[in-house]
Amino acid sequence: MTNRFRTASGGRIDRAAPLSFRFDGQTFSGFKGDTLASALIANGVHLVGRSFKYHRPRGFLSAGSDEPNALVNVARDAARAAPNLRATQVELYEGLKAQSQNRWPSLSFDAGAVNDLAAPFLPAGFYYKTFMWPAGAWKRFYEPKIRAMAGLGVAPDLPDPDRYTQNHAHCDVLVVGAGPAGLAAALAAAESGAKVILCDEQAELGGSLLSETTATIEGKPAADWLAATLATLTARDNVTLMPRTTAFGYFPHNHIALAERVTEHLAAPGPDLPRERLWEVRAKEVVIAAGALERPLVFPDNDRPGVLLADSARTYANRYGTKVGERAVIFTACDAGYRAALDLKAAGVSIAAIADLRAEVSGELPSRALAAGIDVRPSTVLVGTKGRLRVASAQLAKVTKGAVGPAETIACDSVLMSGGFTPSVHLFSQSRGKLVWDGAAGAYLPGTSVERERSAGACRGVNGLQRVLEDGYAQGEAAALAARTYTSPARGATPAPAAPSRSIPASAEDLGTDGFIGATPHGRNPAFTKAFVDWQNDVTAKDLKLATREGMRSIEHVKRYTTTGMATDQGKTSNMNALGIVSEALDTPVPKIGLTTFRPPFTPTTFGLFAGAARGDVFDPVRKTAIHDWAAEHGAAFEDVGNWKRAHYFPRAGEDMHAAVARECKAVRASVGMFDASTLGKIEVVGPDAAEFMNRMYTNAWAKLEPGRLRYGVMLREDGFVMDDGVVGRMAADRFHVTTTTGGAPRVLAHMEDYLQTEWPDLDVWLTSTTEQWSVIAVQGPKAREVIAPLIEGIDLSKEAFPHMSVREGTILGVPTRLFSVSFTGELGFEINVPSAYGRAVWEAVYAAGERFGITPYGTETMHVLRAEKGYIIVGQETDGTATPDDVNLGWAVGKAKKDFVGKRSLLRESMSAPDRRQLVGLKTTDPKIVLEEGAQIVADPAAPVPVPMLGFVTSSYHSAVLGRSIALAMVKGGRARIGTKLMVPMPTHAIEVEVVEPVFYDPKGERLNG
Amino acid sequence: MLIITCPWCGARPEVEFRYGGEAHIARPADPSALTDAEWADFLYNRTNPKGLHAERWRHIHGCGRYFNALRDTVSDFFVTTYKAGEKRPDIDASSGGSK
């Protein structure tokens, strides 16, 4: 297709580089330098989407990142599809494929458009009023249907094959926005010697200068000045220029997040390049030069394709050599409409009329329009537009003393509107700076700063090209100066606006400060008009007025009730008009209505950018023991315990978990099993005061524990509740080998460090985490001693020389070991600690030595069953942070004679020894085949009136193959006094009868421990 | 993300640190001498001020040390940091964020 709507010449597109692309399956052509939007407009295409709620046909509203309508899906393939991209920001490349969204079956005939006729039934807040019955239908029926109808694009359901990187950068001055103010700021800061980063969301740096055809700066055409300035900045090695880079988030202490789109504009991205880069910048000083956004006017049917912002139409003409139509009507409240009219006329667009909301029309631009023969009509409003898929006419009416006169229809194929400019204060607001209402400017402007930043140019209400350039230069210089004296991120006083220190003479049309906020009068029956405020969320002036009638007063409430400003464009084009309408409806001045908060991201940001490399296997670190690979080779099923992968059980062919665990349990009880306990936390506590330190940290008494002996230690928090437990070996008078639970290791070390560093810095103790230094091989069962005996040297393993709960140092296969005689199964047992590098070799040697006894590797599930048969608790399973040692039958481990230890004082509180506290007991189901649900509640009488008093809950429950029945541990109120009684465990369909028993099911006298 | 100045290592990003609660709450030398109410006060009651707050941080992914900081809870800027065991600097809230 030909580019019928191209200007004869001009623009920044490369007319020697034609590109072909597809939109909704149809092939079009454009030029290098086009956006998808400018190329479509050049081909006469304005219908590009359907609206969110009413499915009304929509075209382009703007030419930049504020675009609310023209959201498209751009897909290189099924996995590389990006929905909801603003066509105004999508750079054209050869072969680009884009699709419109939210329409079915097609863009020009959309079945969902019936919503437009049903609009009376879809008022503001309809979500809250309709769809409420029957109960539950919202989740099951209405919500999915509404979401399907009112949708934006659809995300691809394949994994993203692209790469995203995350980088950090530091600079003296970060300048956000490369328009005239930003360029001047970067230039000034760079000349002062500061290290500068200048970023801009667009492909080309220059901002509004890219749309200037007649302006001059320092005697040169704006385009030439821009090229020279960029060349100067590029040549400086203290400046980094970042086009296609959006500063999307301003976080505390001048931490600014930038999204750099690296390959989105390339026809064939190289495999070496990431798709996007996240830059986390720490800047000593920030200059925000974000410019201003043109405001639409709110009048009936202002959303037809072909209705655009006036300055955007000017950008399409001047920058992209594209005419938005052949005949335009302009509706304006400021001189921007005239500037656009003149430039479009020069580009070959005929201007049917300029309707000016203002009564007084004077000044340079209006005079030039009149001189050019344009039909200028003061005190005139647009009261409507007509046309099915594209605007075909506009209705103009004179306003006399507030009354709207009869309408005159003027044929046109485009309507350009301008309500003035809104300073872009998003980043300033994100930085927690206070905005202040400036009545003269009719805008919110940056007030008190919180961070070390300053705004420059149009985003702080400065207008006029020369003033903007000089303000940018002054702010850039001031920022560089402030960066030189930087000591901390804290901002002192709000910086006074710097005075221009250099003149940058420029000539350009002066637009003044006129503008309009709110809805323009139309004199029509409001029931039958839709004057859009928020294009993306389909919010009309009527909706906002309805919200105020229904009692909303704060803009925060109006926003949530109507969803105005809540779409992906965050109300860039709609917020101020919404404020104006609410202000008028409530007869309250704008600053009294309040202002909604701007939040990151400035424009939508991909998940890929945030995820970066943290996907799949590297999403979260995986911890594996030295014995992991052996277990994997032997068919282990693994479970996650914290970040650790632990062997859960070792199924043989045909076995499920239940069968494997039953076999493993029996093997340990009957002969011998081996278990990888390497994940146990380990801390080496060393120093002259080590025993004193242990005395204070644990409930137990350590002073009299002889070197070579082990003790089971209980650690409390200061509030008296069990925090951790573990076996501790005294290696020497001044050295303890402390073990902790697998999950508790970092917590315990931090807890110890806290007390050692801040409460008892006088104690001479050193703490070292040794969790990963030791592999721990537990050999458990009656044959355990016989298995390891041939491998051990230097340790007398006899019962007399090496009793239960001892530790000896020797060697196993020549590898130094700390050998523990310890059991977490109730059987004779040893734990072989060897340096991790030898873990697998020693494991394999023990396995080989045990083969003649049928040694059985077992996993965490069997470990859990065996310890439950013995009533050994697991901290975090039996305890929940509210259990005292006595509650879990560990009162014996509390050193009563000790004057103090962490948690002791809390144990003395009366309630900590109340007889009705939940206490650890065993449960036996009357039917031995029933295995209780862990977490199930326990009651005395399930038929008791609601609320049924809860007595406790099941903490551990297993089938015990060795005992041939189910067993359970539970925490039950006054449990020890209930031993021998029956209680009930209610389930959804029936209640299960249980008997309360002692929590030791197997070998209650502990005779097997000694082999 | 905040920038926190470890008195041992210098300015580092917040991710290297762990918050440690209010500072200058010494564990009583003889807890058994305290009434239940006094002990509960030590355990649970904190000042939670609007303004300058003396608080503990640990440079857990750095030197591992606990240290103290004065932070303005309104602005979230640190006024100063100092080593554990040192006295709280005599800075009043009005100068919060000025350093």
TrEMBL record, chain A:
Its EC number is 1.5.3.1. Residues 172-432 form the FAD/NAD(P)-binding domain. Keywords: Oxidoreductase. The keyword Coiled coil does not apply. Pfam families: Fer2_4, GCV_T, GCV_T_C, Pyr_redox_2, SO_alpha_A3. InterPro entries: 2Fe-2S-bd_N, BFD-like_2Fe2S-bd_dom_sf, FAD/NAD-bd_sf, FAD/NAD-binding_dom, GcvT/YgfZ/DmdA, GcvT/YgfZ_C, GcvT_C, GCVT_N. Residues 627-898 form the GCVT N-terminal domain. GO terms for molecular function: sarcosine oxidase activity. The keyword Lipid biosynthesis does not apply. Gene3D superfamilies: 2Fe-2S iron-sulphur cluster binding domain, sarcosine oxidase, alpha subunit, N-terminal domain, BFD-like [2Fe-2S]-binding domain, FAD/NAD(P)-binding domain, Probable tRNA modification gtpase trme, domain 1. Residues 918-1003 form the Aminomethyltransferase C-terminal domain. It is an enzyme of class 1 (oxidoreductase). Residues 530-612 form the SoxA A3 domain. Belongs to the GcvT family. NCBIfam families: soxA. This is Sarcosine oxidase subunit alpha. It comes from Ancylobacter polymorphus.
From TrEMBL, chain B:
The keyword Oxidoreductase applies. GO terms for molecular function: sarcosine oxidase activity. Its EC number is 1.5.3.1. It is an enzyme of class 1 (oxidoreductase). Coiled coil: none annotated. Keywords: Oxidoreductase. Pfam families: SoxD (PF04267). NCBIfam families: soxD (TIGR01374). This is Sarcosine oxidase subunit delta.
